[in-house]
Design goal:
alpha/beta; Rossmann fold; Dihydrodipicolinate Reductase, domain 2; 2 domains; six-stranded parallel sheet; about 35% helix
């Protein structure tokens, strides 16, 4: 009997995950705290939506960019570094997708930074079922030729001849967009400073876009990306952990009043893992490696001589190229926080940061840093009341910093997690993993006493599934560029606050700070000629 119940439960959950309906639309509707969502009303609405979907011709819903359900989505894959290769191996098995081209300024090299020795090599070996792939090489091998090799080897596995030669390569994404025939979509896995430039160019060429976070490391560009998605009606998605079932679960708990009105949220990350806190640009002038187009890698950023301190995983630490720990990890948690608390843009932001002093001529001298993210920081955002929720403060911590250990954890004799998410309400606290995993009311006795509300909100399908659905004329992805813009904007505001030593007041409607010309100067990038947006 127990086994049968478990099987039924699994079947029910699987059916819910297959629902084509997306749940963020529900979050946008006005609601009252403790207001129950009537299941019959919800199912009736879903039935009506299904009926309407079946009556309206699919080419009408999909528009001019619509990809028929029976057709593959032809994808140009831009960015073949470590994260790009990891994601490529997730995309290739999907029967709905066909990777027709790989683009990267780097041809092929073994100087990339991985999580462990031979991590990427061993994953490629397992994926291609080639136990000797990369044998004899030292270092982490990536680049556009590696990407093409993986694509063609993967597709060859399903041919009768065991051969496949259908993937083109490009160094320049602009040439890809112009010359790759039959392209439906672009998959962007480049460093942060190129995200907006590539995504906007692709959407303006009529292509759908899926992209790794963030939308951009520049505030103005993040808005341009969202605006372009709205105007072109491209199917878009930004990877940001938008497929977690704990997000609607936490909505149900907090909207049910599990801990009362939420007044504070604390979110902390163990990042950065890469160098930060540099006070100046590198002075050495090493030669540009063969097969690497430094000008293309720089893209919109003003020219400076090549140095390996800028490229690969270490780009994240520089203001020009990266988005720091908040831009790297905050998107994975802010998606959850913004959905659960129905947040839009903050009204203010202020930050504190680590400092560095050196001894020069037997004197203490503070080392001013205007080029890179600090080694550790805290950022405080304030949000106004919305719908039935009061004003709330959101606190971000990185570089090993954390909020004080809650008294409730002391009562449970539990340690503070290395990374985490803490909701502080009038009547209690909810502690979860960094992106909302394993949520629980603390202390344990309060969790045990809580009567959980019924499961009423749809659970999301996978992030790639959401985008594929949107490309084929279905419901927009939960993390479409338009939907993620409010927290993408907030992440960029945090980066600006780290560079201005005062509390900043933000006017979201007019997209300006009301009390700092210095901060306003950081809203836009200083572009290299020919790369302006």
């Amino acid at each position: 009997m127990h086994k049968d119940k478990s099987q039924n439960s699994l079947m029910l959950r699987a059916a819910r995950r297959r629902q084509a309906r997306s749940w963020p639309a529900l979050l946008a509707k006005p609601s009252r705290q403790h207001r129950a969502i009537d299941r019959r009303e919800f199912l009736a609405g879903a039935s009506a939506a299904v009926a309407a979907f079946s009556i309206v011709p699919r080419h009408v819903m999909g528009g001019t960019k619509y990809v028929a359900p029976s057709e593959k989505i032809n994808v140009g894959y831009v960015g073949a570094g470590t994260q790009g290769i990891r994601q490529l191996m997730r995309a290739l098995p999907r029967p709905e997708l066909k990777i027709v081209s790989v683009c990267d300024p780097n041809t092929d090299s073994t100087d990339y930074v991985a999580w462990s020795k031979n991590e990427i090599r061993n994953k490629i070996r397992a994926f291609l079922k080639k136990p000797k792939w990369g044998e004899g090489l030292r270092g982490c091998r990536c680049g556009r030729q590696v990407g093409r090799e993986i694509v063609e080897s993967c597709y060859a596995m399903s041919t009768t001849s065991g051969k496949y030669k259908g993937c083109s390569v490009y160094a320049d994404f602009r040439e890809l967009l112009e010359n790759a025939g039959g392209l439906d979509a672009v998959y962007v896995m480049t460093p942060d400073h190129l995200h907006a430039t590539i995504a906007i160019a692709a959407m303006n060429k009529g292509k759908h876009v899926i992209m790794h976070k963030p939308l951009s490391n520049i505030l103005h560009e993040a808005k341009l990306v969202a605006d372009t998605a709205r105007n072109t009606k491209a199917a878009t998605h930004m990877f940001c952990a938008a497929d977690k079932e704990t997000t609607p679960l936490l909505c149900e708990w907090i909207w049910d009043g599990a801990i009362g009105h939420v007044r504070e949220v604390h979110n902390w990350s163990s990042r950065p893992f890469w160098p930060q806190g540099m006070t100046g640009y590198p002075r050495e002038r090493p030669p540009v490696p063969g097969g690497f187009d430094w000008n293309l890698w720089l893209g919109p950023v003003p020219y400076r001589p090549y140095h390996p301190a800028y490229t690969h995983a270490v780009f994240r630490g520089w203001y020009d190229f990266g988005a720091g720990p908040l831009g790297d990890m905050g998107n994975y948690s802010f998606y959850q926080i913004f959905r659960i608390l129905k947040l839009t843009a903050p009204v203010s932001v202020e930050a504190s940061r680590s400092q560095y002093w050196a001894i020069e001529d037997n004197l203490w001298k503070k080392q001013e840093n205007n080029v890179s993210f600090p080694r550790a920081s805290t950022i405080h955002f304030e949000f106004s009341a919305r719908e039935d929720m009061p004003p709330v403060s959101l606190y971000w911590y990185d570089g090993g910093l954390q909020p004080p250990k809650p008294r409730e954890l002391e009562l449970d004799q539990k340690d503070m997690p290395r990374e985490g998410l803490l909701f502080v309400g009038d009547k209690g606290k909810i502690l979860a993993g960094f992106s909302g995993d394993n949520p629980r009311i603390i202390p344990e006795r309060q969790m045990q006493a809580y009567k959980k509300p019924p499961e009423r909100l749809p659970r999301p399908i996978g992030e790639l599934d959401q985008w594929i659905r949107a490309c084929k004329g279905g419901e927009p992805a939960d993390a479409s560029f338009e939907r993620v813009h409010p927290f993408a904007e907030t992440v960029c505001l945090g980066a600006i606050a780290l560079r201005v030593d005062r509390k900043l007041k933000w006017d979201a409607e007019n997209m300006r700070f009301t009390n700092s010309p210095e901060a306003n100067d950081l809203i836009r990038r200083k572009y290299r000629k020919g790369w302006e947006l």
